[in-house]
Amino acid sequence: MGRAFDGENDAKNIGSATISSSHEYDHEKELDAGALFVLKSKGSWVHCGYHLTTSIVAPPLLSLPFAFASLGWWGGILCLVIGAIVTFYSYNLLSMVLEHHAQLGRRHLRFRDMANDILGPRWGRYYVGPIQFMVCYGAVIGSTLLGGQCMKAIYLLLNPSGAMKLYEFVIIFGGLMLMLAQMPSFHSLRHINLISLLLCLAYSACATVGSIYIGRSSKGPEKDYSISNDKETRIFGIFNAIAIIATTFGNGIIPEIQATIAPPVKGQMFKGLCICYAMLSTTFFSVAISGYWAFGNQAEGLILSNFTQNGHNLVPKSFIFITNIFTILQLSAVAVVYLQPTNEVLERTFADPKNSEFSTRNVIPRLISRSISVIISTTIAAMLPFFGDINAVIGAFGFLPLDFVLPVIFFNLTFKPSKRRPVFWINMAIAVVFSVLGVIAAVAAVRQISLDAKTFRLFANV
User: Fold this and answer.
1) What distance in Å separates the CA atoms of residue 426 and residue 343, rounded to the nearest whole number?
2) Quick one: average pLDDT of 99-111?
3) Bond prior to 264 in cis (omega within 30° of 0)
4) What pLDDT is recorded for position 18?
5) Per DSSP, what are the bridge partners of residue 309?
6) Is 310 left (phi over 0), alpha (psi -120 to 50) or beta?
7) Would you state the pLDDT for residue 90?
8) Does the pLDDT at position 201 exceed 90?
9) pLDDT at 220
10) Is residue 198 predicted with pLDDT exceeding 90?
11) What is the pLDDT of residues 138-147, one digit of tens each?
């Protein structure tokens, strides 16, 4: 989509500047330990597609029918289409900006490095860096909590009168994360993320088939697609739903993913995005439409919860069991992908780039620091089972700026398209609209926290 701008702007802004792959490899020798060990550039565009799919096509897509319940048929489908088009466009623009700077000899491996170069060091250090860290670490905590909830669902399926609490399952999931977090680099996750890609197709197919089965049977609820008559509830519900959809499309680590591609990087990210959005289109639309069709405005925050009603399973137990297993396994891949920015910071702080990646000097600090990082995220997930509400605020302040606003600003500042060209005004419109939506979504999320505050309790067994 953005490739149409590539040739013209390259000719205008890059001119005859060409930097050889050997230059990039020479530059790599000067990298800090975080970039050298965690963000090593050895992957292909196919591997990039695996990383992108895991970071975007994740279990939060199972909340799309719930978002549709506040938007209705036309509003829900329109928001889903706009979200897909705008994020594909924005991620492509971001990739083009990264390629441009790489060809000029300044390959940016991190989002904050990109912001430092384009907006200035204060923006990178005090705005982009902190919100990216909050978004990514929040995604790790949210994935750990959701993984624990899926484990508890399986446990209750097998043992309805079981006494184990939610926080115990969160700790078990954290134990799995403790092992996966030791994978040395982002590139080393490529095989895990290929499996993750297959898993997202599997649980999305299960959610779709289950919804259609229940919707066509007499077991399901009576279909009601009406929206709340209360004006305040309806308005805040719409903005909350928009925030859910926008966050579902969120990524926040495009530069770090592009950093895993071996040079030359030109054109590689676009191919990876095509893989990702083929998976995204298949899963997002099938789950959202089938789930809302089957359950209407009674769709739960996680559509799998609708498969059980008043303690009775509306689909076979084995079906629910398999769907939850697929979801748990992919959640572990999602969490370890979003751990990478944290791992990069830890590696840069504690590792020595002059020593081998697997030397005792670097392995021991890596093992200790990453283990502490996972223990902290698991503890927060166990203590705050209502973290989803908090994550909505983080998403509004984080995913919307990182994925919708900053890419178009970076493009305009880097390529400086004429104000007479449509691309300039399209980008400005996207920046303004999604900045406003981010503020409103944050207010809606804070309102939801205040409404749910009376049920908040540490280590609650929800």
Assistant:
1) 36
2) 89
3) yes
4) 38
5) 312
6) left
7) 95
8) yes
9) 77
10) yes
11) 899 989 999 9
- Which residue type does 33 have? A
Q: Which residue reads 């006494």 in tokens?
A: 163
- Judge whether residue 22 has pLDDT over 60: no
In the block, tokens 């895990």 appear at 192
**How many residues appear in the chain?**
462
Cα end-to-end distance, the chain, whole Å = 44
Reported as a single tens digit per residue, the pLDDT across 347-373 is: 999 999 999 989 999 999 999 999 999
pLDDT at 277: 96
CA gap 445, 404 in Å, rounded: 19
Q: Residues 258-272, buried b or exposed e (16+ Cβ, 10 A)? A: bbbbbbebbebbbeb
Asked whether 190 and 47 are in contact (CB, 8 A), the reply is: yes
